[in-house]
Amino acid sequence: MQKQPLATSAALVKATRLTPATVNKSLAHLQTLNIVKELTRRQRDRVFSYRRYVHLLNAELDSSKV
Length: 66
Description:
This protein has helices at residues 9-16, 20-32, 51-65; strands spanning 6-8, 36-38, 47-50.
């Protein structure tokens, strides 16, 4: 998710060559650890955000504006 901090499970399946079940179970576990957040609140085509990474990128952009 560092290469693509906003991703769908389908995109992660394609990128990692893991099964959809494995990717979805991993995403669920990462959600419980508050590492990723599901943004869409849907059953299908959900978009996940790697929260800390996105936060760090935003902080970097904000500091470069100063």
